[in-house]
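Reading a protein record of the kind used here takes only a little practice. An example makes this concrete, so a full record is given next.
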Amino acid sequence: MFKLILLSFVCLHLMQVYAGQNDWYPTNAYSILQQCKEEHKLPEAVIDDIDHGRIEDSPTFRQLVLCASKGFNVYTSENGYNADRLAYALYRIGMNRTCRRQLVGQCVTKYKDIKPEDEMVFHIIKCILEKEVSPEVVEKDGPPSEWKGCDINA
């Protein structure tokens, strides 16, 4: 009987592993991002600045980031950010070309207690993007375009 229970447990665990490493990540992530962009429209100049690593604080940008974070299952108001999931989600949408979970974790830890939550998410995202292009990171790991891989089980 014990062997049967143990075998069942092992099979269940294997099914979870092979079912999909990142099954928490939405299959319609692009649609979620587009919907958030529609709900929280940013001026073209702001989008261009973001594309070049310059982020300025604004209520609209904060709400856009909060909307996408919740939609991508990387943030809840109750638990805050899951740093591994955040790194993976940013990697998938092209905003964290590095997928450096440790870097993302440092930013989440540093700013996780800021209130209100939209201000917190702004500071975390700004921190990640600033660190991604910092001279220390580029010198150590090369430019972001050369960093590969982002598989997680979060």
About this structure: The longest helix spans residues 2-18.
